[in-house]
């Protein structure tokens, strides 16, 4: 009896394997490829700091890299390299500590 059970299970396994492989073949042919459009970005002006050095005392330069609210612009918007962005962040923070740049927008009402 044990041998008939083993044979029966082997037959069932082979039948299920055939069914599964047939289902996989059907699924592969029924899949549609996603069409991803290629979007070309407009040429953005890259780094302004080609010949200038980043200095915390150069407020005119630092103001170009902060928002109206006083936040530091991200790298994808500012167009700086990673090293320049780090130095720019440090310079902006130093200028804030010295008092040359505000921490927040001046016209914001306080919610105290």
UniProtKB/TrEMBL annotation:
One of its GO terms (molecular function) is small ribosomal subunit rRNA binding. Residues 1-13 have a biased composition (Polar residues). Residues 14-24 have a biased composition (Low complexity). It comes from the Eukaryota. It holds the Pfam family Ribosomal_S18. Residues 1-33 are annotated as: Disordered. Keywords: Chloroplast, Plastid, Ribonucleoprotein, Ribosomal protein, RNA-binding, rRNA-binding. GO terms for biological process: translation. The keyword RNA-binding applies. The keyword Plastid applies. It is found in: Plastid, Chloroplast. GO terms for cellular component: chloroplast; ribonucleoprotein complex; ribosome. InterPro entries: Ribosomal_bS18, Ribosomal_bS18_sf. NCBIfam families: S18. Part of the 30S ribosomal subunit. Belongs to the bacterial ribosomal protein bS18 family. This is Small ribosomal subunit protein bS18c. The gene is rps18.
